[in-house]
Amino acid sequence: MIGIGLGFVVNLGGVPVPGVLSEALDMMVRAALPAALFGLGGVLYRYRPEGDMATIGFVCGVSLLLHPAVVWVMGGALGLSTGQFRSAVLTGAMAPGVNTYIFANLYGVAKRVAASAVLIATALSILTVWVWLALLP
Question: Could you tell me the residue range of the domain that residue 30 belongs to?
Answer without folding.
Answer: 1-46
